[in-house]
Amino acid sequence: MISNLFILAESAKDTLFSDSPAVLLLIYAFVIVLIIIAVFIFIRFLNSGIREMKLMRMEVGKLAEELRLLRNDLKGNRRNSSSIQ
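-> structure tokens emitted (85 positions)
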């Protein structure tokens, strides 16, 4: 079994493209292009996360302002009801 694997490994070295620099160059270029694409997608993912975080902060700020206005209205209603009595 192991000897068959060694025979296959030895025969794989003698293929048509094993010593061709053009094929090796294409393989290296393909790998580099894949790495560049992965980095580009990762950077876009990070930028969208930052954008989403800014939008979330704006929404939380709006909710905090509405809460402050509601509290002021409740305080005003309490003062009005206590002054009426």
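The chain has one domain: 22-84.
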